[in-house]
Structure prediction request, 339 residues.
Amino acid sequence: MIGIDLAKRVFQFHVATMTGEVLLRRKLSRDKVHEFMATHEPAIVVMEACGSAHYRAREFRQMGHVVKLIAAQYVRPFVKRQKNDAADAEAIVIAAQRPEMRFIEPKTEEQQAKAVLFRTRERLVHQRTEIINGLRAALYEFGYVVPQRIVHLRLIREIIEGPNCDLPELVRTECEDMLDQIDGLNVRIDAKAAAIRSPALKTDVSRRLESMPGVGPMTALAIEAYAPPMEVFQNGRAFAAWLGLVPRQHSSGGKEKLGRMSKAGQADIRKLLVIGAMSRLTWLGRKAIQPGSWLDRMLARKPLMLVAIALANKMARQIWSMLMKGEDYRNPTSFALAR
Prediction:
């Protein structure tokens, strides 16, 4: 087994037998890594799932090695005393030899490409939000209080571009410059959204996912880019737990004590599922809720956000079932009535 602590320039190798006997400890520059792995006999290669790990995994697999990726938080408890590259590489091997350890499936090039598109759009949205908040802060210094959310950008324009604007000329010029930046970001965000909705990115999986209410192109893209194969999960609850949509446990002594949502999983998919669930609980979305259904009963006795999280959990389980069975979404209530 070969444990590799990845880095930008210097890679630390820890080679050991399956029983833990150390065979080799070595530091190699990035240029020497390919040569070392190409000439080494086939082995089990273990790395932390960090930057460039998925690319290295595909590269090493082509050389005949068996590659496993492990989450960094699962390696940390096995680091002995001082933390350094050699200790990290050794801890990776020790952690990977545990029979109960969980590993991460390496991503394909297509998955990583979709992840880059998703992240680019997210970054542009964050930049736009940052500039809008800067505009609100500048106007607040001169007595103008603008509510949050992008829908109030029209009010900001009326304040800055209005004929009765009493802002200093320098402030007005800077605010107009920020408005121009927002307009440019809006164009780029719309272009990314159009690329996400384009037929070129549509697959059978995305079309199947979008058949579910509350799941749109963004959610489908995030699931394709970040979710591992559904076969790695035993059931839908395991997938929901991986997303962090289950209660956090504080159980002891045989007494179960559940807390708030764990949030111990993939944040992007979880956030989009909660947003999609909220869209099904608006005044318009509630028209499709069958009277007497579990969702209708939950809305009658629970807070709206709690119902949205419960619905997002149910959506995650349904997504697992849809992808495992290769079926489109079927409304459980309508399906039960049809039977």
